[in-house]
Amino acid sequence: MQPLVELDHVNKHYGELHVLNDIDITIPKGQVVVVIGPSGSGKSTFCRAINRLETIDSGEIRIDGTPLPKEGKELAQLRADVGMVFQSFNLFSHKSILENVTLGPIKVRGKKRKEAEEQAMTLLDRVGIGNQAHKMPAQLSGGQQQRVAIARSLAMEPKLMLFDEPTSALDPEMITEVLDVMVELAHGGMTMVVVTHEMGFARKAAERVLFMADGKVMEDSTPEEFFSNPKTPRAKDFLSKIL
Ligand code: ADP
Ligand code: MG
């Protein structure tokens, strides 16, 4: 299998804190990986390092065989290739839903407006927001805004999508509508790294679970294996608290 993301003995510290401790992971194209672990274990830092929102101290990260660029055009290109959806939706509040989705493709990918708008409408339909395209973000619910954030990332035609607790700021009744979009994306072949504690998503869509604690990947297994037979005391303890 062709690797899309490679982390080669990656280390990062915040002062005394070893936040990424010798992470050595390869993610093949098309794989859906769930990252799970206690708060403060380094999950967000792991994601942010992959699109270089954070630098690393040692080791190397490669996307499609190319080491992460440090700056300039190449870095902008990387950010376009690696979509990221956060806990907070981060839509541009003074722009319409449609403009939120077309801005990147026009500015970064150099698409014509008409083409960008057609593509945006297709994506908004896909996430169930097609009929809200001319509204402003504040007029949408949290679940709808998060689906727009996903469509906005997809409009850049990324090679990889990173999700960092995309449903943890949502009211319970809106979680499913966002997870459904993510499950569909996963089944459509997108390579995804998803930080989430939503077991349903992990079971339905993930091929692989990474359990992180203290900056280390402590377990690397299938969802079935991880949830039914966690191997480390840390994972057992963690699962007993969330299940
Ligand atoms: P998680 O997403 O698993 O909760 P994070 O990756 O956000 O964990 O953080 C891991 C650890 O690094 C935490 O102890 C956090 O306090 C610390 N940390 C995160 N960002 C910074 C920063 N910019 N400066 C100092 N410490 C940080
Ligand atoms: Mg986090």
Automatic annotation (TrEMBL):
Its main location: membrane. It is a peripheral membrane protein. SMART domains: AAA. Residues 5-239 form the ABC transporter domain. Keywords: Amino-acid transport, ATP-binding, Cell membrane, Membrane, Nucleotide-binding, Transport. The keyword Membrane applies. It is found in: Cell membrane. PROSITE patterns: ABC_TRANSPORTER_1, ABC_TRANSPORTER_2. One of its GO terms (molecular function) is ATP hydrolysis activity. One of its GO terms (cellular component) is plasma membrane. The keyword ATP-binding applies. Its EC number is 7.4.2.1. Transmembrane segments: none annotated. It catalyses: a polar amino acid(out) + ATP + H2O = a polar amino acid(in) + ADP + phosphate + H(+). It comes from the Bacteria. Belongs to the ABC transporter superfamily. This is ABC-type polar-amino-acid transporter. It comes from Agrococcus baldri.
